[in-house]
Amino acid sequence: MEPSAAGGGGAASASRPPSFAAQTNALLRKNLIFQKRNRKATIRLIIVPIYLCLLLTILQRVINGVLDKPKFRCGCKCVDANGTGSCQNVCGIQYSTVDQAGSCPIPNPPEWPALLQLPRPEYRATQESSLYAGFPDASCRKSQSCSATIPFTGANETVSNIIMQNLFPSLPLSNLSDNASISSLLLGTDVPGTYASFIEPAFISDRPIYILRPQCKASDSVTVPITSGAINIHKETICIQGLPLWRNSSAIINEETFSGYRKGKTVEGINEISMAYDFQDSNEKRFSVLALYNSTYQNVSYIPMPFGLMRIPRSLNAVSNAYLQFLRGPGVKMLLAFTKEMPKQGTRLTFEFSSVIGPLFFEWVVALLFPVMLTYLVYEKQHKLRTMMKMHGLGDGPYWIIYYAYFLILSMVYLVLFVFFGSVIGLNFFKINDYSIQFVFFFSFMNLQIVLAFLTATFFSKVNTAQAIAYLYVFGSGLIAGSLIRNFIEGGKFPKHWITVLEIIPAFSLYRGLYELGQYAIRASEAGIHGMRWSDLNDHANGMRDVLIIVVLEWLVLLPVAYYLDHIASIGQRSSLLSLIKNLLKNPTWRRVSVNEVGNNAVHEEMVKQDIINERETVDQVLQQQSSGYAVVCDDLKKVYHGKDGNPDKFAVRGLSLALPYGECLGILGPNGAGKSSFISMMIGLTRPTSGNAFVRDFSIQTDMEKIYNSMGVCPQNDMLWEMLTGREHLQFYGRLKSLNGPALDHAVNESLRSVNLLHGGAPDKQVGKYSGGMKRRLSVAISLIGDAKVVYMDEPSTGLDPASRKNLWDAVKQAKQNRAIVLTTHSMEEAEVLCDRLCIMVDGSLQCIGTPKELIARYGGYYVLTVTTSPESEQEVESLARKLSPNARKVYHLSGTQKYELPKQQVRIGDVFMSVENFKRRTEVQAWGLADTTMEDVFVKVAKGAQSSEELS
């Protein structure tokens, strides 16, 4: 059959699909109304950034208040001025603690002896000395006399040993009066360093200073005077042995260092090294050394600079001095006399809280829009609202444009308020950095996040599941990004190109961009310079340019992917795409199942009835025509659901062939599980047929569902409505999707409301959430009929209606079927007889009979039903009465004295029945009796039972 543009019996306007602009206009109007009703929730969402900015401001002010206390201001002391006895308040670093020193003006910074970084005594020993040859055992921990272990190796063992012997000076510990004499000693400390050396914490802490010597004597513990300007400190020193250990290769040193790395606070088995050297190919003419240090004591500030390496120069100076003495003798020295910081002006101690926590905190703020968008999309999917719109002609293009635009506007308003309010209240994270960079960054990422929401929505069919996973992703990815990206950048050891690869993950790229903005804000606030500018993107250390490139490229790649997957999920199989993928993994090979397959659960053979044969012949004749003139033609339609977990395949529809002309209402009857819903689902595009085909207005359901939707109306079994929209607004929306507008739309809406008795009593302008179940049902019927849809599917339309409403609904359907085809499923035999021109009964997926109600009653109902109620003692006499009336009488019901018998019409006359019952009543007490002709319900029960019996026998 070739597809025809018009089909039969339809108006030209009805066959013309709505334009792209008309669909977009309909959806836009509906969404504007919905958002107007939902404005409180939207406003609450948009002002969330304002609350968060206020929270950050309050926390920043609390921190500033704490940092402004005397504890953190430059220390002062009242001293005697000029010996006059008058007290004068003098401030300076010499009167300050470590916490106060950072804010003091220091025009002439003090000079501090250079120190080695050593492990604490409990970390310089091991309980596994058999595994680590030469390391000190745990017995030295209590006395804190553990040696400082220094493994070394090199290509020339002799040269390496001589250099290491020169490493520890054995000079006398006398005349330590200046930095030159003190620097001749090899001093060390186990106090971690700081990011600035205005004050050396080792000299003001209660921990001792260590002197490394080849051997220690009792007299080697002395007091070292430190004098620098107004600073005078006398620090006690403790001698510890420097223990050089030869190793055959640097690999052995690396293995021992790795094995002895401290894990948390555990000290059992620790054998931390103080330092290590690999002299490589050093000799009398060449000095090449690889110095290793213990990064456990590296003090990494929030500013990504290796401040913890400040004590490495002493290690390098010591080994260089030892090599120099190897070449020129012990009298030649190259000393590192002291370390000294650059001068600085007085400052106020600050902590840019918003910029420090900004990357993680702001990532959560930005990413919180993702669950909101995902919930919105999955909600319409779960409640079949997207499906309902699709079945009434809404294309994917208008849907994407409207929802994408809405999400983008919502996102930008959300973030503009965030940036604006954060700037107004003084958050440097926003105020210092260039606003145009922030706009481009946020705008790019918001577009990517919207596409991710569309893409992710195809994998979910439940709102609760989508919300839970979305929030876990937002918070979990933020924490992971904050841990990995920050450590990788600030550690300086992770390859830069691998960081770029990690930024392909959207959460990581968002964090990296926010991290860069935060770092520039910190530097700007401390140094008094500007924040990030476009020229800074050329800096190789600035990752913002890479982030922008990655985000834009990802958006360009994922946009068509998300659109395609959404389109695939919205046609054919509309269930969760995740389920589709699971099915593919379990059943990688698709197979066409036909009714010819034979097995334990294959289709049973049955006698095909003449009415079904005639219907198939009609279908064959129609399919030969160029244009059928029929509204619906089903050609051997089959649907099989593949069994799971070892269960057999389920044949839902077995070779259904039907031809439905315009102006006819076809009723489909059948017990639960007969295949009615599966048939409707295939016809409206919810599921694909396993085999066979069907044509609606000459368009195939296999390939042309998009065209079929333009002239199709659906009243689903469950009402698919927006709770916040009114009945009138629902009909206006679906009317616009059917190309109605202006006065024609208003007239169609009013007529639809009147036909289902919803025009009066304020019902049209009442929100659907306040409708009763019956009112919702009537509205669903009105939606299916609006716009002159030529093919209408109604799945149990009168469920839950009172008798009066049901009567009004039947009148509306009878009037509507004059120029369209209606397929109706119902369990009400009365409804079937009133509305349907033809009826078909399905059992176990097979068509059992088809015809008008009168034809079916005449074919399957050639009997009267005699009902007699007596006392239980008289039941046998009632049965004898029925047998006298007709030898072929068949008992069909028996309960507590009430019996029903089927009497063949050709064997009895009504007058004889009345006369016999009257005579029977004279002999036996009859409580009630009746004689009825066959009803449609009787026909249904008989056909259904007969089909089920045949199946059991087969």
Description:
The protein has 954 residues and is an alpha/beta fold. The protein has 4 domains: 115-333, no CATH class; 350-580, no CATH class; 610-855, Rossmann fold (3-Layer(aba) Sandwich); 862-933, Alpha-Beta Plaits. Helices cover 44% and strands 16% of the residues. Strands 4, 5, 6, 7, 8, 9, 10 and 11 form an 8-stranded mixed β-sheet that branches. α2 (20-37) packs across α14 (396-424) and α27 (773-785) runs parallel beside α28. The protein is elongated, with a radius of gyration of 45 Å. It starts with 11 loop residues before the first helix and ends with a helix. Mean pLDDT is 81; it is low at 2-15, 299-309, 572-578 and 583-607.
Brief description of this entry?
With 954 residues, the protein is α/β, with parallel strands linked by helices. The protein contains 33 helices and 26 strands. Helix 2 runs antiparallel to helix 25 (727-737).
Task: Return the structural class.
Answer: alpha/beta
Please state the average pLDDT score: 81
For this structure, what is the CATH homologous superfamily of the largest domain?
Answer: P-loop containing nucleotide triphosphate hydrolases
What kind of sheet is the major sheet? 8 strands, mixed
Number of domains: 4
**Form type:** elongated
State the CATH architecture of the largest domain. Answer: 3-Layer(aba) Sandwich
CATH class of the largest domain, named: Alpha Beta
CATH fold description of the largest domain: Rossmann fold
Share of residues in strands: 15-25%
Q: Gyration radius, to the nearest Å? A: 45 Å
